[in-house]
Amino acid sequence: MRRSRATGIALALVLALAACSRGPAPARSGRIVIGTTESVTSLDPGVCYEYFCASMLLANTHEGLVRVEPGATAPSGALAESWTISDDGRTYTFTLRKGVVFHDGSPFTAATMKRSLERVKTLSSTGNAAFLLFDTTNDPPKSGIASIDATDEHTLVIVLVERDSTFLSKLAFQVASATPEEGYPSDQQARAGTVVGTGPFELAPSGYREGEYVDLDRYEGYWGQKAKSERVRIRFFKSPSALRLAVESGEIDIAFRSLNPDEIGSLRKASALDVVEGSGAVIRFLSFNVTKKPFDDVRVRRAIASALDRGEIVRKVFDGVAEPLYSMVPAGFEAHRDVFKERYGNGPDPGKVSSELGAARAPEQIPFDLWYTPTHYGDTESQVAEVIKDRLESTGRFKVTLRSSEWADYKTSFARGDFGAFLLGWFPDYLDPDDYLDPFVGTSGARALGSYYSDARVDELLVEERHTTDAARRAEIFVELQRQIAEDVPQLPLWQAKQVAVVRDGVVGVSLDPTQILHLAPIERRR
Amino acid sequence: MSRRSSSSAHRGPFVAYLASRIVLAFPLLLLLLTMVFLLLRVVPGDPVSATRGPGPSAQTAEQVRRTAGLDRPLAAQYVDYVSGVFRGDLGRTIVSNKPVSSVIAERLPATVELTLAAMLVALALGLGLGTFAARRKDHPPDAAIRLGAIVLYAAPVFWLGLMLQLLFSVKLHWLPSGGRIGAFDEPTRVTGLYVVDSVVTGNLRSLGSTAVHLALPALTLGVAIGGVFVRLVRSNVIRSSRAGFVEAARARGISERTIALRHSLRNALIPIITVVGLWFALLLGGAILTETTFTWPGVGDALLFYLRNRDYPAVQGIVTFFGVLVIAVSLSIDVIAALIDPRIRHR
Fold first, then answer.
1. Contact in structure between A267 and A247 (CB atoms under 8 Å)
2. Taking the complete model, does pTM exceed 0.90, yes or no?
3. Model confidence over A31-42: pLDDT tens digits?
4. Which region holds residue A509: left if phi is over 0, alpha if psi is between -120 and 50, else beta?
5. Do A17 and B169 touch (CB under 8 A)?
6. How many CB atoms lie under 10 A from the CB of residue A300?
7. C-alpha A354 chain-centroid distance
8. What number of C-beta contacts closer than 8 Å exist between A and B?
9. pLDDT tens digits for range A97-117
10. Mutate to test the interface with B, among A33, A206, A249 (most CBs of B within 10 A)
11. Is the peptide bond before B342 cis (omega within 30 degrees of 0)?
């Protein structure tokens, strides 16, 4: 009796297996599965400050007053239909869109917007991106938002402490998303798994499994263009190789962030897959602590700038999915200039290395540690460090020791000033050249990012750039600041990463632009 | 002596044995808790800098530490943690601010399902090949099986997993490369074990999807530990068929069937149960590599996530949970072994 039951169960299993053994589950129309190696810590716009949460999830489920449309760099209206800016540049009066309803059915009003923004400030202790909107360190504040008023149901007035030409760009970041009262307490973070906004996608019922997947359903009550697909699942993978296998075998439709360059190379040859590329706004660079020997001597930093070969890094490590970068402001911005190419040429120049070091009366061989982290920028990081070491040592003037530490430790160490030379990357918070300059050469930003560079004239220029709305003057300042960086070399820009998504045949609508946002609404399956 | 009095005469030493085992488990548990606590604090990096972007100022980072209780003296944190564990409170995670126990509850079914399936694979492999090798002792099939078992045992789990993925997922397209079930195929949750839930709710699509997803990870993990079982079963079957008591039983004219079931097998079972039990406990923890290779959403996978984020409470909680599990399993093995073999409890 017992044996026959066991046999029965085994038989049923085998039959079920046979029924499904023709590979992965067949694609279902209206549903899209996206795989990523990114990870989630929080889903609350008032708290999270990492790529996945902001640019893959909240950018599709939540909206703020303004946003940067695909292909643009300047913000346009989202929940705000229009706005006016006072002559002194401090008062923004937003006219809000009418009839907008949150996923939970509650109405969007000026009062909810005010509450959402103020909540961000209250939650600044969670390490969120409140500093983009508010001065979280000084009381009374010296910059950022001074007051927010809902003058009627559809009018919101925001007054700034001082004029800030980047304010609208900052307001486009997901930290400034509208959240309803229900589920988002004003003084603490939302319960794990709460996702309620006004965007084109809403969280599916029990659609969040930490570390496994997020299921998003098309929001039928959306005020704008409705999403093309009924449901999108974002699945989390632990390694690029697992992600690659899944897209290769058809278990997922799209693999996005991050596959290794060699894997992308081999996937390009697969017949059922498309490799979609987009320009990236992420920059990678070598940073120096300008107060630490031997890098306290600008001539040593310039010698390194003359010795490096960016083309070699891109060729040897990235197999074409990156571009050499010659300025901290990436290509794609009008203000971008190839300042390092102008100053040091585009290849290694041993003559310049010798003349710089000769002027510095440096010893025959300069030994130093080059730091990198193997746990934040992917598997390629150690190879990058290796290529740089070889190139510098080939000049005969440097003796480089490679040293690495885990990201958690790395971050604290460079900010503390422990590292002399270290590899770093930058993911922009808002699309404005200011976000590529102020954090690196502004005195307080440079301290936080471990270069300890400080220059009074540079600080003045940064303030002036932020205070003026004159686009031509701003562009002039940006160029001047870029040239200053090439002269002083607190950082050495290396390459600009391209964004890459691998998409199965039949899935359309994937576009990658400098906002770094993965727009889910236009993605659909077509036979 | 009647049967009844004989069994109560045995109970005394057994209870004493059981009690001594349980009492000994406590210092072991305390040692484990202390080690986990200290190791996490020796590792560089802390949860605040690990989970947050480069934005927060020193002041806000300090506030985060305060809310998580990380600003208090180590000794106070330690006492909190240990007393919490003994009250059954594993604390809350820092990254998602939810009870660690709920994380474990959410992830455990996946790990248990994988472990059970791997155990079945390993046992089938061990009993089948082990007995076969014992019968063909010192013949080519025996040598081949022994060699194969050693190779499987020595092969790293993740390597084995990758090879199977390459063959069955990428080359042959027979089985999925990872995940626990196809997208949107999850059965309605009853126990959290997808096989059981699919059967209970009569969802054949889920059952099929679960089975194909389970196949590779279970095979990987099962084959890796199956190697040990093969050798263990083989040597035990050989030893017990030669044992004096078997010869004696034969001489007394007891049937071969009774000898096999009542004498040989019962005696051969003890080392096997001990190893099976220990491996089961180790499997739960050892599933981390398999879970990572196959994106299997179990507790091991969660542990890796929290470890990367230096989420002390979560890592402490999960490791403690595994530790308690291993202690509990080895305790029950001792008890089962004592029940089967009276010599153990009289030692």
1. yes
2. no
3. 999 999 987 778
4. left
5. no
6. 23
7. 38
8. 169
9. 999 999 999 999 999 999 999
10. A249
11. no
- Rounded to an integer, what distance in angstroms lies between the CA atom of residue A510 and that of residue A38? 18
A404 close to B (CB below 8 A)? no
Cis previous bond, A82, omega within 30: no
Rounded to a whole number, what is the distance in Å from the CA of B277 to chain A's nearest CA? 23
Residue whose token pair is 């290796």: A386
Interface predicted TM-score of the whole assembly (ipTM), two decimals: 0.71
Between the CA atoms of A300, A284, A132 and A335, what dihedral angle is there, to the nearest 10 degrees?
Answer: 80
Query: Using the beta-carbon criterion (under 8 Å), do A238 and B183 form an inter-chain contact?
Result: no
Helix (H) / strand (E) element for A160: namely strand A155-160
pLDDT at A475: 94
CB contact under 8 A, B60 and A124: yes
In this structure, what are the phi and psi dihedrals at residue A386, rounded to the nearest 5 degrees? -65, -45
Would you call B298 an interface residue with chain A, using a CB distance cutoff of 8 Å?
no
In terms of Cβ atoms closer than 10 Å to its own Cβ (0-12, 13-18, 19+), residue A11 is exposed
Nearest CA in chain B to A21: B174
DSSP state for residue A333 in the 8-state scheme: B
Query: Bridge partners of A208?
Result: A214
Confidence of residue A452 (pLDDT cuts 50, 70, 90): very high
Q: At residue B9, does pLDDT exceed 60?
A: no
Nearest-angstrom CA–CA distance, A242 and A259: 9
Asked, as a colleague might, if the bond just before A140 is cis with ω within 30 of 0, I would say yes
Q: B310 in contact with A at a CB cutoff of 8 Å?
A: yes
Sign of CA dihedral B225, B230, B235, B240: positive
State chain A's maximal CA–CA distance in angstroms.
93
Whether residue A194 lies within 8 A of chain B, CB to CB, comes out as no
Q: How far apart are the first and last CA of chain A?
A: 50
B211 reaches A (C-beta below 8 A): yes
**Cα–Cα dist A404/A382, whole Å:** 8
Task: Please give the C-alpha separations between residue A442 and each of A134, A170, A208, A428, A455, in angstroms, as whole numbers.
Answer: 18, 18, 40, 16, 8
Q: Give whole-number Cα distances, B35 to B28, B30, B39, B82, in Å.
A: 11, 9, 6, 12
